[in-house]
Amino acid sequence: MSLIKIENLTKDFVSEEVVTKVLHGINLEIKEGEFVAIMGPSGSGKSTLMNILGFLDKLTQGKYFFGDQDVSGLEDDELAEMRSQKIGFIFQSFNLLNRSTTLENVIMPLLYTKVSDQERLRRAKDLLIKVGLEHRLDYTPNKLSGGEKQRVAIARALINNPSVIFADEPTGNLDSKSGLQVMKLLQDLNEDGNTIILVTHEKYTADHAKRIVKIKDGFIVEDHLVEKRQWARENGELTK
Amino acid sequence: MLLKDNIKLGFLSLWRQKMRTILTTIALGIGIASVVIIMSAGAGLKHMVLSELDIYNPNTLNIEVRVPGKGETGSATSMASGVTITTLKNSDMEEIAKNKNVEAVYSYVTSQEVIKYGSEKKSTIIFGYGAAAPKVEVLEFVSGGFYTEEEENSLSQVIVLGYKIKDTLFGDDEAVGKNVYVGGKSFKVVGVLVERGASFGFDFDSIVYIPTRTLQKRFLGTDYVIGINAKVIDINKISSVKADIEYLLRDRHDITDEEKDDFKVTSMEEIRSTMETVVGGITLLLVALVCISLIVGGVGITNIMYVSVAERTFEIGLRKAVGAKSKDILWQFLFEAVILTFAGGIVGVILGIMISYLVYYGAVSYGLNWTFSISIFSIILALGFSTIVGLFFGIYPARKASNLDPIEALRKE
Ligand SMILES: Nc1ncnc2c1ncn2[C@@H]1O[C@H](COP(=O)(O)OP(=O)(O)OP(=O)(O)O)[C@@H](O)[C@H]1O
Ligand SMILES: [Mg+2]
After folding, report:
1. Tell me: domain A2-225, CATH 3.40.50.300, correct?
2. The whole model's pTM is what?
3. I want to staple B187 with a disulfide (CB 3.0 to 4.6 A). Which of A37, B63, B157, B277 is the partner?
4. Whether A81 contacts chain B with CB within 8 A
């Protein structure tokens, strides 16, 4: 059974009588355990699609099924609940709280769940070991490098054991070495069975995924498996 | 979101914006402290004012002359400018004494004379006090006692000295039994009063008392008095006795219209409750004023919280993106506002108690009969009010924060 299924999905932005049509009838199905790269030129609607799939935004028309649940018409609080329970986000600009420590940043999503204090701490520490930052627990983001920040963000995205991880240009602000580390983490996570949806406009980044979906002007123009998959190596660099 | 997480988050956020927190807490604390101080000072003032009335028995009726046809203040001003009312007599007092409910009664009149002992002289106020005075009001003696009815009726030249006068004339020497000269006439000292203190600016320790009739006959050459004090046997009957006296005096003074009364009868109970009302009213007024200033301060809190929401738009967006619901954000900001104002409340209460104590200390060393009291009510009021200010003025910014769209908000880094 598919994890994500959308049918004829459209998205219009309406503001001050100006209607911007961004997505024009998208059909897409993603199964559990997939690693999908969404590609396309700037302004094509990648982030818009990801925001809808990630329950940050509402669709205008069409159907969205998550697992066996029809989630097309969820209200704000229900969307928040879905984000809290099912989704992990990784952003291009890390989006960490600057006044909070690494540990607090990672735990933050669990403040909105019923997970106990000990469990919160245990999960956060485990994840920070996994991303190699167990020695940076008390650092605030301004003392971390870009790559370290993104690894904190990855730990944060994983803290609620999400069904899907969305990563919007996660390597966009990183040097090639840190970028590769992030891709390696994502590949490892996928190998462990996590479903990952990666937004990028770089071919060599997208080639780390298993499947590429190309969007142009709000339509899906290509959808195929990666022919020559790249494997991120330890200590390597993310190069063309 | 759990209550404990909200509280933790609130404290953490305030801790991370120390300067803002400290300044707001101080500003609010001062306002709250004012409430506590005013209420404490009000209690102290009330105690002071009422304790000045303690030298009078509550079941005392006071009859004083007044200028007919004028209001309360009109009468007082007329008398101050030299109008003398000569209609109240000792015979009136004698009639009042016949009332079955009156236990004791005396009349009084005043004059100013030079009092002299050996080489010491002093110009002083002389009270002509009826011999029954100790039965009506509280008079306590260091030595000797008050003069008797017989001494008054025989126009004896006897005198009771106030504490300070005795001190001026005799120092530490015994005064009772000695003779002093009052306006050139020799008077025998029969008693020295204990220190009575001042009451409404009038220093009871610097006056002397001689029998009313002696003062009238030997110095003034008149037969009127300026007032009469009567003690009622049963305090429950005080208003009926008051009415009796009014009726009696109107009859004796041929007055048919109350407006034309040339006297006024007041009970100590009335004076006491008037004082209480006045002091209570002043306190309430001041508290109300401070509360208004706190509300103005509350608008400041709103402003601070709005700025805080604007500064933290990104944080709000992020929290929502990872699963915070609108109400989680609402509570987060509301808690922050309430913790902030509650902290201000606690600082204010502590500051208020400390300053109230200083006020008490100052008042006492200044010789005032002050008390130090902090009512639980004032603390509850201060803390309750500050919390309400936080809730009320925090709710709009918190609403604004909770309604932010996560995607929009995340763009604001
Ligand atoms: N809130 C909005 N109101 C109006 N138009 C919007 C809004 N959000 C996005 N758009 C428009 O929708 C289009 C797609 O935006 P989107 O952010 O999805 O692009 P993208 O593919 O992620 O581009 P990039 O690679 O530059 O991140 C753009 O033309 C953008 O201007
Ligand atoms: Mg984008």
Report:
1. yes
2. 0.72
3. B157
4. yes
